Amino acid sequence: MLEVEGLSVNYGAIRALRQVTFSIAKGEIVALIGANGAGKSTILNTISGIVPAAAGKINFLGKDLTKTPPHRIVELGICQVPEGRRVFARMSVQENLEMGAYTRTDSREVSRDLDAIYQRFPRLGERRKQPARTLSGGEQQMLAMGRALMARPKLLLLDEPSMGLAPMLVETIFGIIQEISKEGTTILLVEQNANMALGIADRGYVLETGEVVVQGPAAELAANPEVRKAYLGE
Amino acid sequence: MFWQQLLNGVALGSTYALIALGYTMVYGIITLINFAHGEIFMAGAFTGLCLVSYFKTNIFVAILAAMVVCMILGVVMEFIAYRPLRRSSRLSALISAIGVSIFLSSLALMIFGADAKGFPDTSFPVRLIRVGSAEISTLQLLIIGISALLMLALQFIVQKTKIGKAMRATSEDYNTAALMGINVNRIISFTFAIGSALAAAGGVLVGVLFNAVSFNMGLMAGLKAFAAAVLGGIGSIPGAMLGGLLLGISEVFGVAIGYSSYRDAIAFAILVLVLLIRPTGLLGKKIVKKV
């Protein structure tokens, strides 16, 4: 579904990504793991079109994304849940969700999806008129995920969904990610919490200073002694 | 006397508010102080004047036409002078804005000359209506009425329509708005269009109020409206409305109690005070550094 080939990204003189190659098949959950600053978020933002690629190709369903503007990429079926959730703090919960559906014109289906989101996340339904800044961290993460789902993405990009959440909430969020995957959405998951990420992913890639250093089925990575040592806290 | 002055202040303040809205909306989205905004106001005043003088249209048609002309002018200005500098430093865009400002006022000087021009007497019948101890002129009614109508319309667009919500989203978080599929460039053009249309309406109203339209009228009005936007809290739409009204009222009362030679200084004294005491303005949001 998505093939990234030889992708390099520069921030000024600093090379943030070096010749990164990976792919995601339809229906998969793929995890990108690595330390802070390894380039995980840069990959997602380059796919989403808000960071320009210096070299390489990003092919999504037969279209190259490297020269496509961000709003067109959402129309093509890729939506991102950014790091730190980035909900629109002064807008209401409902308005946030409406922004997720911004590119859609099928208003009847949109309001049906809105109901579905409120069913999946009842807390959001109770707070639909409240400004998003009044939500707790976990609720904001749910709102950010609900907002991205409102776009009906074919490929969902998740950037650090566990960040700053209590362990119980992390379990809940990862349960929801699995549900979303079962409903047929392909998922690219960026995580520092390698344990959790490899627990639900089909395959994984390990990034180090902008390069892919190890890749393979998630179970294999989780068993790899070096990965365990570097990222699983052993 | 008090009510009379208050009324005069509200009428003047509404025109400041109309201009201040453009500053604040543009700043809210691209954090640029559009110093050419006062010249858009001036262009609106000239457009209105031409229509009334040469095409003998009534004042309402003139206001509407000025709004349309300035909408286009604002969008073109953004496209030529600011968009290419979007990824440059904020200072470059600011310098470009000052350049546009000088260009537009020089252009007006070339076309219309240096003398202030007045609206023909027939353009709007001014009558005085007694309300209690105060007198309200039909001109003040026109100014307050049109300003209120435009601000209500703006509030509706920003709060209820899809593009208005996208404007708010973009002003809160530019990148995340793009990630939601919002065409940020289109939102920026739209913001310039709306802000310029409001300034144009303000331009025609001020032109009729003072019966003077000149190439350099945008400078002082623009600076005062900028002060009003800062007073209300730059980036805040209700703040710009409130700041405009307060500034207009302070100016009129300042003149009434005998400081008429300091008329223009009042706005800037307020600007300095706000920046010293409460830089975020009356309704401005706290500045939180994003990590």
UniProtKB/TrEMBL annotation, chain A:
PANTHER family: HIGH-AFFINITY BRANCHED-CHAIN AMINO ACID TRANSPORT ATP-BINDING PROTEIN LIVF
Domain ABC transporter: 2-234
Family from the record: Belongs to the ABC transporter superfamily.
Taxonomy, superkingdom: Bacteria
Pfam family, one: ABC_tran
Keyword line: Amino-acid transport, ATP-binding, Nucleotide-binding, Transport
InterPro entries documented for this protein: AAA+_ATPase, ABC_branched_ATPase_LivF/BraG, ABC_transporter-like_ATP-bd, ABC_transporter-like_CS, BCA_ABC_TP_C, BCAA_Transport_ATP-bd_LivF, P-loop_NTPase
Protein name: ABC transporter ATP-binding protein
Organism: Geomesophilobacter sediminis
MF terms (GO), sorted A to Z: ATP binding; ATP hydrolysis activity; branched-chain amino acid transmembrane transporter activity
GO terms, biological process: L-amino acid transport
Automatic annotation (TrEMBL), chain B:
Pfam families per UniProt: BPD_transp_2
GO CC list: plasma membrane
Molecular function terms, GO-annotated: L-isoleucine transmembrane transporter activity; L-leucine transmembrane transporter activity; L-phenylalanine transmembrane transporter activity; L-valine transmembrane transporter activity
Membrane topology (UniProt): Multi-pass membrane protein
Subcellular location: Cell membrane
Keyword Cell inner membrane: yes
Primary location group: membrane
Alphabetic keyword roster: Amino-acid transport, Cell inner membrane, Cell membrane, Membrane, Transmembrane, Transmembrane helix, Transport
Keyword Thylakoid among record annotations: no
Membrane-spanning parts: 6-26, 61-81, 93-114, 134-158, 187-209, 265-284
Gene Ontology biological process terms from the UniProt entry: D-alanine transmembrane transport; L-alanine transport; L-isoleucine import across plasma membrane
Recorded family membership: Belongs to the binding-protein-dependent transport system permease family. LivHM subfamily.
Protein name: Branched-chain amino acid ABC transporter permease
Annotated source species: Geomesophilobacter sediminis
